[in-house]
TrEMBL record:
<dbReference type="GO" id="GO:0005524">
    <property type="term" value="F:ATP binding"/>
</dbReference>
<dbReference type="InterPro" id="IPR003959">
    <property type="entry name" value="ATPase_AAA_core"/>
</dbReference>
<dbReference type="InterPro" id="IPR027417">
    <property type="entry name" value="P-loop_NTPase"/>
</dbReference>
<protein>
    <submittedName>
        <fullName>Putative ATPase</fullName>
    </submittedName>
</protein>
<dbReference type="GO" id="GO:0016887">
    <property type="term" value="F:ATP hydrolysis activity"/>
</dbReference>
<dbReference type="Pfam" id="PF13304">
    <property type="entry name" value="AAA_21"/>
</dbReference>
<dbReference type="InterPro" id="IPR014555">
    <property type="entry name" value="RecF-like"/>
</dbReference>
<feature type="domain" description="ATPase AAA-type core">
    <location>
        <begin position="26"/>
        <end position="347"/>
    </location>
</feature>
Length: 400
């Protein structure tokens, strides 16, 4: 799966000009309310929406261009992503690629003002070259699996100014690098798990993947138990290890063709319904289903997973996220982004996995990795934990 090494965001709400470099398999964002954590995650959702529909619709669902562009800012909204097509463990065997998109507005209508893909092949030095480069709907593309700088460039013209070029060209076999990026972005998954949604009784029928809110949890349980029983058994084993007394979980069809989740507690003969299960139990179960998905998403964003979970489970959950993100022998890792307010979750991290968000004097968001903050590496080398350093005020304004 592709791996993002760096992302630069300009003029997107509070994110007027921020860059996250040297990203890790797991990246956790910490900061006071209102510093842009949710906005950072929405960048991934916005780009996915632009690809799945178009720029206009993605902006309208967020309040249109002038509401999305950073206040008092000029120029386009832009995103620049440096990534590799291989996962974290194999990334150095893959050529880095940069994708850039700028979105502007003219006569009240948003449009893609610039979009390009570039890389540098076969040379250690020299400028990267663009194998896709479109400005205001017109530009060039180089076809083939490994487009070279000297290859023939084909002129292209976009029919709709608010459609991404990678959406159109990514459907064609002669543009495999573009198609790879399209599939990557289409697979990004944002989890805003809501326990009450998971307690709903959905229509009967299997579902391969958990939805963003978890409202199809019972359907995914049905799918895993039927199609991937070994994986489902492993999930149950891990849940039982973390939730004392929990024995089994299964989906049962009702007489009207819907599904209910039933939880069996060891000491009791009869199972009980999801509506009687704690938020923490549902969340831990749902996150493990997400992490053990037989075909996981290439990128995963999770907002505040600690809510409703016992503090002792947070260190374990952080380790589960890290193991999933790094992958292993025969397993491809999924890059993970998490927002958190919990020192117990933060305690499980390495300093290079933690990002501190804040707001500068102009009101815009700023972000810095914890290991770049003065004295943090020294404290960590002496055995300090990030959660303790956070409480003791070593993250500056990010301690809110």
């Amino acid at each position: 799966m592709p791996f993002i090494e760096q992302i630069t965001i300009k003029n997107y709400k509070l994110l007027q000009n921020v860059t996250l470099s040297d990203l890790q398999p797991i990246n956790v964002v910490l900061g006071p309310n209102g510093t842009g954590k949710s906005t950072l995650f929405d960048v991934f959702g916005f780009l996915a929406d632009c690809l799945q529909s178009n720029v206009k619709k993605a902006l309208e669902s967020r309040g249109r261009f002038l509401e999305v562009r950073s206040r008092n800012a000029d120029g386009p909204i832009s995103f620049t992503i440096k990534y590799r097509e291989a996962d974290y463990l194999n990334r150095l065997n893959s050529t880095p690629i940069t994708y850039h998109i700028s979105i502007d507005e003219k006569n009240g209508k948003p449009y893609v003002s610039h979009e390009y893909l570039q890389w540098r092949r076969g040379k250690q030095y020299g400028s990267p070259y663009r194998f896709l480069d479109i400005k205001n709907g017109e530009g060039i593309v180089i076809t083939g699996d490994s487009p070279e700088e000297g290859d023939e460039r084909q002129a292209i013209r976009m029919d709709s100014p608010d459609i991404l070029a990678i959406k159109s060209l990514g459907q064609l076999a002669e543009h495999p690098r573009v198609a790879s990026l399209r599939r990557f972005i289409e697979g990004w998954f944002l989890s805003y798990f809501i326990p009450d949604k998971a307690r709903q009784i959905p229509e009967s029928g299997a579902a391969e993947h958990l939805s963003g809110t978890g409202d199809n949890l019972a359907n995914v349980v049905q799918y895993l138990s039927e199609e991937h029983p070994n994986t489902f058994e492993e999930i149950l084993t891990r849940v039982a290890d973390r939730i004392p007394g929990l024995e089994t979980i299964k989906s049962e069809r009702t007489v009207d063709g819907r599904l209910v989740l039933q939880f069996k507690d060891g000491p009791f003969k009869d199972p009980f319904l999801a509506r009687n299960v704690s938020d923490g139990t549902l969340k831990m179960f749902a996150y493990l289903i997400l992490l053990y998905d037989p075909t996981p998403p290439p990128l995963l964003c999770v907002e505040e997973p600690e809510n409703g979970l016992h503090p002792k489970l947070l260190n374990i959950l952080a380790e589960e996220f890290r193991a999933h993100a790094r992958g292993g022998i025969g397993e491809k890792g999924t890059q993970v982004f998490v927002s958190s307010h919990s020192p117990y979750f933060i305690d499980a991290l390495k300093s290079e996995e933690l990002w501190i968000m804040n707001r500068n004097d102009k009101g815009y968001a700023s972000i810095i990795r914890a290991d770049k903050i003065k004295r943090i590496p020294e404290f960590m080398s002496e055995g300090a934990s990030l959660g303790s350093l956070w409480y003791e005020g070593y993250f500056g304004r990010g301690n809110g």
